[in-house]
Amino acid sequence: MSAKPSHLFYQGRERKPVLDQARGVYMWDVDGKRYLDGSSGAMVCNIGHSNENVLEAMRRQMEKSTFGYRLHFETEASEKLASKTAALTPEGLNRVFFVSGGSEAVESAIKLARQYALAVGQGSRWKVISRSPSYHGCTLGALAITGYAPLTKPFEPMMQMMPKVPAPRAYLDGLDPDDIATGHHYAHMLEAQILAEGPESVLAFIVEPVGGASTGALVPPRGYMERVQEICRQYGVLFILDEVMTGAGRTGKFLASEHWNLEPDIMVMSKGFAAGYMPLGGMAAHERLVEPVLDAGGFLHGFTYAGNPLACAAGLAVIDEIERLGLVRNAALMGEKLLTRLRELMDRHAIIGDVRGMGLLTAFEFMSDRATKAPLPKELRAFDRFVQIAYVKGLIVYSRRTRDGVEGDHVLVCPPMIVNETHLDEITEMLDAALAQFTAEIRP
Ligand code: PLP
């Protein structure tokens, strides 16, 4: 732990160990302590740390140029990454706009949607419906469509908060997620909201295909995703998929939308796309949206670092490595094995009330009573305390409160997609020990 006073600040006063180096799935602090990166940072480092081919591609790019302002130059790296992204995203999403992170990508998507509506004479449409809980970013636009009260409340007077519909948490509502009626039940909440708002005022619906930090790897019930897409089409509402966390192989397909053959109007990506090697995000939009905006005078939006050649070179090399090493398939295979291990932990530890996930986006949720699904008392700050216990044992996991941000705690276990079974054993052993210690602390 660093003892020196610091000029840096992030969320709180707590000081963290100082990172020295990272290789593959492991990270070391300056005192030589080793950590297994069981959350890929914040579900970012999908291909593991210090991948030599990515570093080499970055070195090559650095020797050529590290910056070219988008109003002065196009770059080979951004052109190539745009083509690659268009090829990997669903049919028609062939116009790509680069940014430096997920919040910027979400901002870009909602601004493009609004400008499109204006360009085609639908200026009455401005509301972006999202779900609660959800997380779409921390900038004020992205926060207005985020359903997570502790983060949004202080800023609400400064934002135009957008309408929310409940996320489909069948496990809490006692509904069968494999029954298509369950999926349709939640999807129809979107339809009801669109009708209540007045369809002519609704611009878009944005959704994380598999929930991330907000709902803790919530997998939608059968039929839900297909039905919400249909409802959007029916009411002329743009369908935006936030694949910031689920993209780049995390759920066992390159994009989570592939699990349901979805065809969104806009898709946003970040995190795994450059896998932590550089800050990079992007939006892939249907040309049917982009062309009218360009015809009407251009897209009124852009960031200084958009399309940064070094970030794009890193992104291209990351996708090459995902393909070369077969990491999407590995995420699907290892994800199944990880879910089995988490279910075994649930058999041994009564404080786990639910296990869920897809590919290597997996989570468990703490409950004080499985029958009533009651959460652990808020005062225990389980999400904080459990992460700390695991951390001391050398395992990094990611945790959040889950139920609208006021109660309930989940722990995301999302190691890099290069993991093998030995790594999974190591993760399981450390989780087992951390769960035993945590239970002993709260139920002495
Ligand atoms: N969207 C989703 C689904 C996310 O999980 C996140 C970050 O966790 C964001 C958007 C915001 O991304 P960033 O933190 O890169 O701004």
Automatic annotation (TrEMBL):
InterPro entries: Aminotrans_3, Aminotrans_3_PPA_site, PyrdxlP-dep_Trfase, PyrdxlP-dep_Trfase_major, PyrdxlP-dep_Trfase_small. It comes from the Bacteria. GO terms for molecular function: pyridoxal phosphate binding; taurine-pyruvate aminotransferase activity. Transmembrane segments: none annotated. PROSITE patterns: AA_TRANSFER_CLASS_3. Its EC number is 2.6.1.77. Keywords: Aminotransferase, Pyridoxal phosphate, Pyruvate, Transferase. The keyword Mitochondrion does not apply. Its cofactor is pyridoxal 5'-phosphate. The keyword Transferase applies. Pfam families: Aminotran_3. Belongs to the class-III pyridoxal-phosphate-dependent aminotransferase family. This is Taurine--pyruvate aminotransferase. It comes from Roseovarius gaetbuli.
